[in-house]
Recover the amino acids of this structure.
């Protein structure tokens, strides 16, 4: 390791390991300190671009842990900033495991962003998937356990595709470095790597996990999840697949698909999840266009998106935490009880809708301009149509159905509704501040973008007039057809139907034919196996009784005492905890092996 | 403060509506007069006044109706669909 390079992910990992030993009154300051240190480290690295943390692994592979360049800097900056905001939002959470899972998740994301080769990328990619699964499992609501397993299985599948892809690429080219792939010289490995990365970006048809998981995570967990997985995947796509035409098509499809499902959705966090799919569609299209302006637009939009979507998820979390309700059919008219939450959610909503002076205005338009400049008129017009839909859903439908309109709350919900605790308000305030700051102080964001030779000016009359016309007439459309946008107590079937039904078929097979086989095997075993086993057992009992007992007895008592305590700690009978410990130890060994 | 403001506005729906229609008119007419469309990307922007207003209104309606049609065609189903 180079002397001056401390990997930001390492700060979070070590911080997470020490966290259980920190007690009040030092706990809250410590919780803020660790992400703050990580952020400072990222800032320090931004001043010193270069390649760090190059390690030789098993004598033949070179691992690169720290590639600091224009593209990784802007993503690392926003991830580290969001880690601070997210941790402040969850400051009141007593359960340290939730903080540990969240920090390891962010560490995974930062690790991916700074990684220079596929092995390191894959290591952190899996840490991300694994740690974030716990953010779902920690939620005690009905359905979260199953949603967590679905999330883990889908991401394992994506991870395996990525693994196969880069191993095949290594076999074909002998190269593990994580760089731009050649569009004119593709092979099976190109598409496997792309599919693996696209699954995390929630590109259709690999997207169904997103609304499913994000609506089932803990209140604080979903704030982290909405920021990191998809935007880290966008970073990896921008790194390796910039200019691949297929991504333009997929991105536009994704933007439209997401917004249509968001119009139909009843659960607030699923609605926001669908809108992530839609917004990430812009970024995927931007990567596909691949020009300097488009890549800058993708980075800027990811940056802005993390802030306003985090803000919207924080607002949604505040509502769910206070009322215990997450469905639009059980809410409504809450402006009287939660005015501050309303205020912050409206700021998030008009930022995503690209109101002038807010962050979406200066980022989304870059991607649309880039498609006009590359003469992709169909993409530009369809993406503009989706931006009308975005305002319709996040700027109008969502606040209207939660805060205005008639109240559909039960009296218990109405009683419980109130603005959240101070730290949640503070986190929302910080995110809201940045939404306005990014939209008004252009050099802040534009100065960080990777292609410094490009200059872009969003505040010109033509663009302002275009945006205001779109917003005004979308609002008119909402006003006229409001009745068609009301919430209904339904769910919308999506492509996850296929694997959910396949899972059910598998379960049936396991319960019926396989169970019969198991029973038959058990019977045979009792007849044949048990007799021989008993004979051996009788002999060894005799030997044990007469020979070994005396020596072993003393040792056994000590082992039993210790073992009982460790087993009590490690095996609580919950498969999630067992998995957690197993993987944590494996990861520790791996880290120790690489660094020592 | 926010609550009072909203209550104040909610008590005057007709005024709000008139104000909003006025705002939309100002935006469309302002765009027609102020924007120099000679450097616009496409033909439609150059030759159709208030193009983006028409475009947004049509997109909104198309999205609302396509979503509604898809929902009724069987995408939307009862909430306990997966719980059987």
């Amino acid at each position: 390791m180079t002397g001056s390079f401390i990997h930001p992910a390492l700060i979070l990992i070590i911080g997470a390991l020490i966290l259980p030993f920190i007690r009040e009154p030092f706990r809250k300051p410590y919780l803020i300190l660790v992400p703050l240190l990580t952020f400072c480290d990222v800032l320090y690295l931004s001043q010193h671009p270069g390649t760090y943390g190059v390690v030789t692994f098993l004598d033949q592979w070179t691992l690169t842990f720290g590639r600091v360049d224009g593209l990784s800097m802007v993503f690392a900056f926003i991830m580290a900033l969001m880690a601070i905001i997210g941790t402040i939002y969850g400051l009141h959470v007593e359960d340290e495991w939730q903080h540990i899972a969240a920090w390891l998740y962010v560490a995974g994301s930062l690790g991916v962003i700074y990684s220079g080769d596929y092995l390191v990328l894959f290591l952190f990619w899996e840490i991300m998937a694994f740690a974030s699964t716990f953010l779902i499992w920690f939620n005690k609501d009905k359905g979260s356990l199953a949603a967590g397993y679905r999330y883990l299985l889908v991401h394992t599948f994506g991870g395996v595709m990525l693994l196969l892809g880069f191993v095949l690429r290594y076999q074909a080219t002998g190269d593990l470095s994580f760089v731009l792939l050649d569009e004119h010289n593709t092979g099976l490995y190109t598409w496997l790597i792309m599919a693996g990365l696209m699954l995390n970006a929630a590109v259709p048809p690999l997207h169904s996990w997103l609304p499913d998981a994000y609506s089932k995570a803990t209140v604080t967990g979903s704030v982290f999840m909405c920021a990191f997985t998809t935007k880290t995947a966008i970073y990896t796509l921008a790194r390796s697949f910039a200019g691949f035409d297929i991504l333009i098509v997929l991105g536009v499809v994704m933007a439209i698909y997401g917004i249509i499902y968001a119009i139909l959705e009843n659960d607030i966090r699923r609605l926001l999840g669908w809108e992530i799919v839609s917004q990430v569609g812009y970024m995927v299209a931007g990567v596909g266009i691949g020009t300097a302006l488009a890549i800058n637009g993708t980075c800027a939009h990811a940056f802005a998106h993390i802030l306003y979507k985090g803000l919207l998820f924080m607002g949604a979390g505040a509502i769910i935490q206070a009322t215990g309700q997450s469905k639009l059919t059980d809410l409504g008219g809450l402006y009287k009880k939660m005015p501050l939450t309303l205020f912050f959610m409206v700021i998030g909503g008009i930022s995503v809708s690209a109101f002038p002076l807010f962050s979406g205005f200066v980022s989304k338009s870059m991607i649309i301009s880039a498609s006009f400049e590359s003469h992709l008129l169909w993409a530009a017009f369809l993406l503009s149509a989706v931006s009308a839909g975005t305002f319709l859903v996040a700027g109008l439908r969502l606040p209207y159905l939660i805060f205005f309109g008639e109240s559909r709350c039960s009296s218990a919900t109405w009683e419980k509704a109130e603005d959240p605790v101070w730290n949640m308000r503070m986190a929302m305030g910080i995110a809201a501040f940045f939404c306005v700051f990014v939209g008004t102080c252009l050099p802040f964001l534009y100065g960080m973008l990777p292609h410094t030779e490009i200059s872009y000016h969003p505040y010109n009359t033509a663009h302002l007039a275009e945006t205001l016309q779109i917003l005004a007439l979308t609002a008119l459309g909402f006003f006229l057809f409001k009745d068609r946008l009301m919430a209904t107590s339904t769910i919308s079937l999506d492509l996850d139907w296929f694997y959910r039904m396949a899972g059910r078929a598998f379960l049936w097979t396991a319960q019926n034919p396989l169970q019969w086989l198991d029973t038959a095997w058990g019977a045979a075993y009792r007849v044949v196996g048990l007799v021989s086993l008993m004979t051996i057992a009788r002999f060894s009992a005799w030997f044990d009784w007469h020979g070994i007992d005396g020596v072993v007895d003393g040792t056994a008592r000590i082992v039993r005492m210790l073992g009982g305590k460790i087993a009590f700690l490690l095996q609580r009978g919950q498969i999630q905890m067992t998995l957690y410990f197993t993987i944590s130890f494996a990861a520790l060994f791996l880290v120790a092996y690489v660094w020592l | 403060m926010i609550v009072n403001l909203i209550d104040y506005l909610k008590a005057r729906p007709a005024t709000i509506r008139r104000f909003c229609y006025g705002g939309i008119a100002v935006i469309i007419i302002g765009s027609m007069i102020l924007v120099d469309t000679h450097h616009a990307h496409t033909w439609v922007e150059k030759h159709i006044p208030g193009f983006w207003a028409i475009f947004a209104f049509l997109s909104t309606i198309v999205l609302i109706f396509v979503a509604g049609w898809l929902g009724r065609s069987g995408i939307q189903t009862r909430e306990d669909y997966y719980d059987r």
Notes: The longest helix of chain A spans residues 513-570. The radius of gyration of chain A is 26 Å. Chain A has a mean pLDDT of 90.
